[in-house]
Amino acid sequence: MIWIRESSTPPSRPPEEPGVALECYIAAIQNIAHYAVDLDAEITGPYVKYVAGLAAEVQAAPWQALPESRSTLRGLLRDYRDKAAQFLARLRQQLESTAKALQETVEALAQSDGDHSTRLRDTLKRVRDAAATPEGAPLRAMLTAAVDSIEGDLAQMRREQQFTMAQLQTEVRILHQRVEALQNAAAMDQASKFSSRRSIEEYVESLPAAGFMVLILKAHGLAQARAKYGASIADELVATFSRRMRNCVPKDAVVGRWNEQDFLAVLPVSQGKEKTDLQAVSDHLSMPYACMMAGKVVRISLEVSVEVLPPVEGPPGTTLRCVEKAFGG
Q1: Are 249 and 267 within 8 A, CB to CB?
Q2: Calpha distance 188→193 (Å, rounded)
Q3: Domain 197-326 has CATH 3.30.750.24
Q4: Beta carbons of 324 and 262 less than 8 angstroms apart
Q5: Each residue of 49-101: pLDDT tens digit?
Q6: In the chain, what are the domain boundaries?
Q7: Which residues contact 202 (CB under 8 A, 6 or more apart)?
Q8: Around Cβ 225, how many Cβ atoms within 10 Å?
Q9: N- to C-terminal Cα distance for the chain?
Q10: What is the rounded distance in angstroms from the CA atom of residue 268 to the CA atom of residue 54?
Q11: Is the dihedral of CA 249, 251, 255, 261 positive or negative?
């Protein structure tokens, strides 16, 4: 019976150690700071400082700092991603300018080489012809040897220049490949941007009488956020709002910013297509936004209203006038 009783007792388990998970979490934050890609001192320096500071806060007071640390870390990563995208965009522009200048240099060298070589060969031909005349007989041997030497040096210089130009053209191709890679990397960031008021006006004015749907969106709170937190936080808020808005509409939709707090989206409508859930779009866009300010998360709430512009009939430009009326001018 003793044996049965002992065998029936469930095996003992080692005590739970939540401290191990906390240590792993802190180590992960520290590693994020340690292995950050060094893009620029003004970008990477503050990022590493804030992430390392977050790890120190969690380590010093884990149970107080732990709940808020998740959103803070997520905000720091998002902010660094956005700044890295801007850095890559500037780098792409610099590479494009460098590639263009290098290509122009190669073309100028090729043109200059052709012009000078033609003139020099013509001059050497006239010297050789002069040496072949009776008057040039006394200097014929010397002139012929000099012309042969110059032509040989000219051919060697041409081969070296062609090799240099081939290297430059290879550099140009490499630069173009890097530019293309950066363009692909920035494609997602570019897709989240809004069309300007002028471009969206021109687009709406050119719309046909049917086959599309216009969403009117009013985001109340953007102006207050700019006044309270500053331009950088307001720009980050608009960028996040843009990404959310892009996720709510089809990929081929055209979205634009009418003014500081008013936006619109033009959606293609096919026969029998289900109506957009306006309340779901409004709720999604009105969820709190987490922005980074001095390494801390600032939560900003917006009140977003969404409505569909009623179908209109009339000459070109009627839809644009209706949009202007919906936005109050």
Answers
A1: yes
A2: 9
A3: no
A4: no
A5: 888 888 888 888 877 778 888 888 888 888 888 888 788 778 777 777 777 77
A6: 16-191, 197-326
A7: none
A8: 21
A9: 91
A10: 46
A11: positive
